[in-house]
Amino acid sequence: MSQHPRGQEDTDSSSWMRNEGLIPDEVKLPSAPDYLTNIKRDLNEFTPKYPVYYFFYGTLTAPVTLQRIIDLPEEPKMRKAKLIGYALAKWGDYPMLINREPGQEVPGYAYIVQNEEEAQKLAYYETNAYKEAHCLIYFVDNEEPAEASEKTFVYAGEANALLEQRFDRKLWLHQMAGKLV
């Protein structure tokens, strides 16, 4: 008989997992690296923390637009900033942020989103042609902090399809998620 990770004999795998309070995906295999098996830790790392800076590069760089979208009582204070390693491409009339060469820069502005409600309003405004992504924001206004690892909205499809102006299956699938049966 084989041994389980905790030294128990393999008489009934499902009962052993039930007794340990585990589901099959949570069982650690001796040969699997920790990052694949430490499920509880990974889930906690993605808990949203607010306030958080968001980098904007299109219509949301206008304070009055941002004020209207997230229902602020006054125009927001925004910081002049840039991203490095990105570029802008056009999707119709709309600029899309895409990953590019390490030295390329995209100018824009950053704003401190105060809570999940504001973040949800921004995501709704951006539509599902964009997806939220982590980024390193470099501030160019001589204030502190000089940089911050925060968030932005990037193109949800394939950058090369966008640049070549061809059908983007990745974007189509992203937009149709939940609509196809």
UniProtKB/TrEMBL annotation:
> What would be one Pfam family of this protein?
GGACT
What's a Gene Ontology MF term here?
Answer: transferase activity
The Gamma-glutamylcyclotransferase AIG2-like domain covers: 54-157
Keywords annotated in UniProt: Transferase
Q: SUPFAM superfamilies this protein is in?
A: Gamma-glutamyl cyclotransferase-like (SSF110857)
Q: Which Gene3D superfamilies match?
A: Gamma-glutamyl cyclotransferase-like (3.10.490.10)
Please state which protein family the record places this protein in.
Belongs to the gamma-glutamylcyclotransferase family.
- What protein is this chain from? Putative gamma-glutamylcyclotransferase
Natural source organism: Penicillium concentricum
